[in-house]
Amino acid sequence: MSRDGDPATDTRTDGGTATGADDVTLDPWGSSTVSDYRKLFEQFGIEEFDHLLPDVPNPHYLMRRGVIFGHRDYGPVARAMREGDDFAALSGFMPTGDPHIGHKLVFDEIIWHQEQGGDAYGLIADLEAHAARGLTWDEIDEHARNYIVSLLALGFDPEAGTLYRQSDNREVQDLAFELGAKANASELGAIYGFDGETDVSHMQSVVTQMADILYPQLDEPKPTVIPVGPDQDPHVRLARDLAARMRFFKVTEAYFSQELDADERALVAQAYDAREAFAEDPETPRCEEAGEWLTEYDAEVEAVADARDSAVEKLDNAGMEPLRPRVRFLNRDATDEAFEALVEAIDGEKRRYENHVDSFDLSAEDAEELAREVEVDNGGYGFVAPSSIYHRFMTGLTGGKMSSSIPASHISLLDDPEEGYDKVKSATTGGRSTAEEQRELGGKADECPVYELYAYLLAGDDDEFAEKVYDECVGGERLCGDCKEQAATLMEEFLEEHQEKRAEVEEYIDELDISFDSDRKRN
């Protein structure tokens, strides 16, 4: 969940190719790149953000320009914004080097969510940096301060938000201990490639990150978004799984007394919808009738044969039991008192079984809300599955991926403004070989690191300016020399302003409730 890489490549929302990227690999500690963002939708279930964009009030320019290209379940966060409900945003930063312009995009997203009324959290992933990257505590302390100073200088409100270090937050560590009981080494090995040589502290740092992600919900459950690059998606998926495992109850749709998996449930739902075709009394279709229909009309059913066979077997076992939609509360890990409280709280027609209770009057949404309310009232967490938004990887100024370890490829937020100017002037472009060819064919803005600077930083909230630069480039009106001169000047001005604000932050940062001097042993 911590950001060691960087977002963004082009401004398209069609899942286009990132310049200099290779194949799809999602490794939170590697040098992950993505050759085709469409593969993330197909292979990992990441949803396209542009489909959700109309539902987001006052969307950030990174959303509008397609820098934020995907999400997992961001709908509840957007709905909370629209309706004025509680929500939170959190991201962490692994202090392995200086903060740079790639990190600024993440800073901006946290600040934007705070400005939209969310509870904002910024954390220093120092335990991860020590365990996964082997940084000393002296190195971590130095870098951690620089990250927080830049975050504050860009507009994070420390009085309205929360800043912390993993190593100083006992609540996070206690939650990590509880979450660790719901995960095992084999699972972490499957997700992250850990093996017998992986040290235990590295594994522990993963569980700590899961606790970070769920930390905003300790006081009360609420939609929470984690802005990250796609390389961090394994953390998000594991956190969503662990949030579900910590729940007292699982709410599902059901049609008869036996429990179905997702594929079986989809088949039985099709059978129920087709009841007019097979039921002697369509008002009360019977399970064995539905089983016969699934067997006889299997060509109409879009599912694998084994799911159909297992669904038919369960329907046959239920015999003449009516097939009837209901909402089911499965007792996942509830105390006896909590289960009794849930049964009592369900209004209307219901049917109780040993390990679940069915409601025939509640909607799925109302059932989920009731289950969470009963859980919290009975000492549970009631976690809402965390959401995420994903950025494109940013192209380095020298081509390829932007990297903290290659100074010329990135611009540090600590760089002298003149140095920032010089780096932009020396950057690779998407221009043609000659000015004449550029005027005739136009430049390749979608492959240009300098254009990315305009789209993701230098144009700020001014969409018209970003579009003007793009149109002039691809139309052949804008030549690379003038374009880089303008970008270099804007970058110099940005760094000057940012460092003035950093100096202002330095005057009060020691008064904040976050320590930059670890008292841990210097090993």
UniProtKB/TrEMBL annotation:
Pfam families: tRNA-synt_1b (PF00579). It is an enzyme of class 6 (ligase). Residues 1-13 have a biased composition (Basic and acidic residues). Keywords: Aminoacyl-tRNA synthetase, ATP-binding, Coiled coil, Cytoplasm, Ligase, Nucleotide-binding, Protein biosynthesis. One of its GO terms (biological process) is tryptophanyl-tRNA aminoacylation. Residues 484-515 form a coiled coil. The keyword Amino-acid biosynthesis does not apply. Residues 14-23 have a biased composition (Low complexity). GO terms for molecular function: ATP binding; tryptophan-tRNA ligase activity. A motif ('HIGH' region) lies at residues 95-103. A motif ('KMSKS' region) lies at residues 401-405. It catalyses: tRNA(Trp) + L-tryptophan + ATP = L-tryptophyl-tRNA(Trp) + AMP + diphosphate + H(+). InterPro entries: aa-tRNA-synth_Ic, Rossmann-like_a/b/a_fold, Trp-tRNA-ligase, Tryptophan-tRNA-ligase_arc. Its EC number is 6.1.1.2. It is found in: Cytoplasm. Residues 1-27 are annotated as: Disordered. GO terms for cellular component: cytoplasm. Catalyzes the attachment of tryptophan to tRNA(Trp). Belongs to the class-I aminoacyl-tRNA synthetase family. PANTHER family: TRYPTOPHAN--TRNA LIGASE, TRYPTOPHANYL-TRNA SYNTHETASE. This is Tryptophan--tRNA ligase. It comes from Salinirubrum litoreum.
